[in-house]
Every structure is written in structure tokens, then in C-alpha cells.
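User: Good morning. I'm curious how nicotinamide-adenine-dinucleotide would be positioned relative to this chain. Could you predict the structure with it bound?
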Amino acid sequence: MKNLLVTGGAGFIGSNFIHYMLAKYSDYSIVNLDSLTYAGNLENLALIQNDPRYTFVKGSIDNYDLVWDIFQKYRIDSVINFAAESHVDRSIMGPQIFIDTNIRGTQILLEAARNFGISRFIQISTDEVYGSLGDTGKFTETTPLSPNSPYSASKAGADMLVRSYYKTFKMPVLITRCSNNYGPYQFPEKLIPLMIKNARDNKPLPVYGKGTNIRDWIHVKDHCAAINLVLHNGKEGDVYNIGGENEWTNIDIVKTILKILNKPDSLITFVTDRPGHDFRYAIDPSKIKRELGWKPEYTFETGIAETIEWYINHQSWIDDCTSGQYQHYYDKMYKDR
Ligand code: NAD
Ligand code: TYD
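Assistant: Good morning! Here's the predicted structure, ligand included:
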């Protein structure tokens, strides 16, 4: 298990994972296949771009010929599939690309993996495939899938295909389902970096509905450590839930950010709710803790403070992400909302 294909490695979690793996293992080679959508950013990988163990290929996971060439040329033995359209709000504005990348792209990767034979295929899924919780309860690996947005439906579709390749072709596939990540290199369309950016700029902080929806936050490095354990020690055909057991209402997250940045709560603006907005996510991670010995290293207090500091120390990173198309997206999503 030394020639890894990481897809979507120029995005938030994928780039953190590449940094994590190259720092941890001296003898692994990583090929990063990423089509560089608006969310893909090679700046995230600037620190390792000349590392001889790392190769970047620009292209899509739904390009059959390219994927075939990569498996052959780099003798890929393991796949970690992060590549996806990942933002719920964008899936509401335009679902088609979510189907093309998240479902069709995953199927092409599975076919290539089947053709060439691999030791591991890790599908990076999400807790959102389980749908929404009420005030109580947690998602376990046996919770039925009940996705509510085009994004989560496309991820659930991919999970079903991955499962079918295990059942039908006995392929060594595993699925991880993680809760909301935070940390460095997250595109500022997602809650935490968006609010940090707007607070920095003294712009309104758009909170959907009443801000009472709940998410279960985990530091991206804890997620990467969990994926690594699943890659090496997980059981073929199994699903592993990953979560920080760290639930927050959105309004409390936003107020925490404002407090750390020493900005006034008056920047908060309540806006029209997201259609079909899932009320609460909460992961029960007891399986991965018990079976693989994983536990999160970060407390939220330390993690969020470090994360805010990272964004404040990387202002040009934020500014580069938010030049060009971003303003157009932002206006379409938030103007007159
Ligand atoms: P992201 O949007 O930051 O990055 C996605 C990356 O995939 C980008 O680099 C993009 O260029 C690339 N990409 C998109 N379409 C592609 C294609 N057709 N071919 C090749 N590359 C393509 O997303 P993220 O937050 O890093 O999420 C990574 C994965 O983790 C996704 O599969 C997502 O569903 C899952 N996930 C995310 C979270 C979270 O909180 N962000 C939580 C659980 C699971
Ligand atoms: P998001 O980061 O988009 O992740 P997801 O929807 O996949 O959980 O949103 C996290 C929560 O924050 C979600 O309940 C929606 C809410 N939210 C806002 O209130 N305002 C915003 O501008 C954004 C982007 C999200």
C-alpha cells in the first residue's frame, strides 16, 4: 500500500490529507488527481509541490481514459476518493454537476480499480447521507440512508455504488462518513471560513433561519488521522463513522468567531433559511474508537482558536480564493436573501 491515488487533493480535506500522509510516511508516493474546480487550489499544496514523492495530475475523475492511464502509469495500489462537489447550497442552485462528479466519477474510479486490482478503495463520504436528526439521537453506521439535499443524495448514490462493488465484485472497498470539518484551507463558502472572512472585513454575517441548526464539528487533522487508520486497519466492506462529539448551534459558532476576533454581534444578519435545511447532525464514533483505536486530538477550544489564527495569518490565501467568480457566487447566494 504505497502508491496512493488521492482524488480531490487540491481541496480542503484532500490537501490536509496529503500533508498528513507525506509527513507520516517517508516511503509512500501520492498522485493527486484534481480537476481544479473553483474549490481546488494548488496553493494548498505549495509546501510540498516539489517533493519527489508527490505528483499532480490535472483532470477529472469522470475522464475514463485519463483515470485508466493514471492507474497504469503510476501502478496505483490504493485510492482515497475525496473528489466531489461538496457544497449543499451550490447543489440547490445546480444539481447536475453533483451527479456527474460524485456519482459518475466515483463509478469510473471503481471500474478502473476493479480492472487493475488494488488493495484498498476508500470512499470519503459524509454524515449527511443519513439525513437529519431531531433533538436527540446520533447517527450510527446502521442508520438508514435518508439524504435530503442534491449534494447528500449524490454522496449516498456513490456510497451505494461502492457497496455494490464490494458485494458483487468482492472489491476491497471501505466507506468513511464524517461530520462537519473545520481547519486550514477550507474554501470560504462553508460556514466557518465564510464567517471569519466577513468578520475580518466588517461585513454582515449571514446566518440561515434562526441559527438554531446544529452541526457536529471535527478538526480536519483528526479526520485525516481517522482516514489513515481506516486505510491501513479498516475491515473491507465496512463503513466507519467519524465525528468529534462536538455539537454546536450555528449561532453559537458565529458568536464564538466574533468574540475571538473581537468584533461586535451586531454584524450578525439573519437571512432566509436554506430550503430543506437539515436540523441536526450528530455522529456516534464508537465503532472507529473501539475497533481502530482512533480518538480526536483537538479540543474545539484549541482547534477553533488555531483555525481563526491561521486564516488571519493567511489573508492573501483568503483574498485569492475570493477574487474572480466568488463575488458573483456570493451575490447570487446572499443578495436580497
Ligand atoms: P472541497 O470542495 O474543498 O474540495 C473538493 C476537491 O475536489 C477540489 O479540489 C475540486 O477541485 C476537486 N474536484 C471536484 N470535482 C472533481 C472532479 N470531477 N475530478 C477531480 N477533482 C474534482 O471539498 P472538501 O470539503 O475537501 O471535501 C472532500 C470530501 O470530503 C468530499 O467528498 C466531501 O463530500 C467529503 N466530506 C466533507 C466534509 C466537510 O465538512 N467539508 C465532511 C464530510 C465529508
Ligand atoms: P455548511 O458549512 O454549508 O455545511 P453543511 O450544510 O454541509 O453542514 O453549513 C453549516 C451550517 O451553517 C448549516 O446549518 C448552514 C449554516 N450556514 C449559515 O447559517 N450561513 C451560511 O452563510 C452558511 C454557508 C451556512
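The domain at 2-181+218-242 is CATH 3.40.50.720 (Rossmann fold). The pocket of nicotinamide-adenine-dinucleotide (ligand 1) is lined by residues 7-8, 10-14, 33-37, 39-40, 60-62, 82-86, 101, 105, 124, 126, 155, 178, 180-181, 187 (CB under 6 Å).
Let me know if you'd like a different ligand tried.
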